[in-house]
Amino acid sequence: MPTVVIDPGHGGNDAGAVNGSYQEKNFTLEISRKVRDYLLDHYKVNILMTRTTDQTVSLQQRTDFANSNHADYFCSIHINAGGGTGWESYIFNGTVPQATIRAQQIIHQTVMDVIGKKYGVRDRGKKRANFHVLRETEMSAILLENLFIDTSEDLKLLNNSTFIHDLAVSIGEGIAKALSLEKKTRTLYKVIAGSFKNRQNAEDRKSFLATKGIDSIIVKVSLNGEDWYRVQSGAFRERANAEARLEEVKWAGISDAYILEDETPQG
User: Fold this and answer.
1) pLDDT of the residue at 20
2) In this entry, which stretches build a coiled coil (predicted)?
3) Nearest partner of 106 among 35, 1, 176, 6, judged by Cα
4) Does the domain formed by 185-265 have CATH 1.10.238.10?
C-alpha cells in the first residue's frame, strides 16, 4: 500500500506567517488533517503526518521522518504571505524524476479546477524552488502555498469552512490521481424480495409489501442479456440491519427473499 506523508507547515514555537490573531500553523494543520481524512476515507493508502498537533518540528525532522518511513510521496501544506493573492505549487528546482513533474501537473490542475472555477482563486502557477523539504526528501515531493494570510479576500476564504473542505478534497483527489491510488469499496447489503421477468409481477409484489408497511423499489437489471425486475426493500451498510429487514419481509410471507451483497467504489 502506498505511503503518503502530509506535512503541515510550521507549528509549535514557529507560527509561520501571521495576520493579527491568524497564524499559518493553524490553517496548515486544519487543511492537512482534512486531506488525510479524505484520503483515508476514500483510498487504499497509508497516511503519515509530520505533526498532528501544535508542535515544533524542524525541517530536518520532517524530511528524516519521510525518508525513514520510505514514503512514496511527500506533500507540504503552507499558507502564503507578502500581499499577493492566489494558489501555487512548488517542486525542487534541481534534477527531479519525470514522475515528480507529472504529479505536480496533476495536483495543480485538480486543485485549480475546483478553487479557481468555484471561488475565482488566482492560479499563480507551477513553480520550482530550493526548499529544504523538496530538496532533502528521497521521494517525489510537492509544496503547496494555499492563498495569502495577509490579503483580506484570501483570508476570508481561509476562514470559510466550505472552501477549506473543497480545497482539502481537491488536494486529496490530486494526490490520488497522481499516485493512481486504488479506491476503497463499500459493501451495501440489499434485501431482495423477489426478481421477475414481468414488470407487472414486480409491481404486484411491491404493492403487497406496501400493504404490510414495508417500503420497496423496483430495480431493473440485465442478466445474461435478459431484463429482470428486482423488488428491493432497502440497502444497508450494516449487515445486521439488512438481516432485520429480511426477517421482516419473510414474516410478511416472502419466503424466498434474500440479501444481495453489492460492492461499489466509495463516493
Assistant:
1) 96
2) none
3) 176
4) no
Name all contacts of 253-258 with Cβ < 8 Å and 24+ positions apart.
253/208, 253/212, 254/193, 254/194, 254/205, 254/209, 256/194, 257/191, 257/192, 257/193, 257/194, 257/233, 258/191, 258/192
Q: In Å, how far are 106, 139, 204, 242 from 197, measured between CA atoms?
A: 47, 56, 13, 24
Which fold does the domain 3-179 belong to in CATH? Aminopeptidase (3.40.630)
Helix or strand (DSSP H, E) at 23: strand 22-23
* Count, residues in the chain: 267
Residue of 145, 153, 203, 243 marked active site: 145
User: Scanning the structure block, which residue is given the C-alpha cell 492566489?
Assistant: 86
- Give 222-264 pLDDT, tens digit per residue: 888 899 999 999 999 899 999 999 999 999 999 999 999 987 7
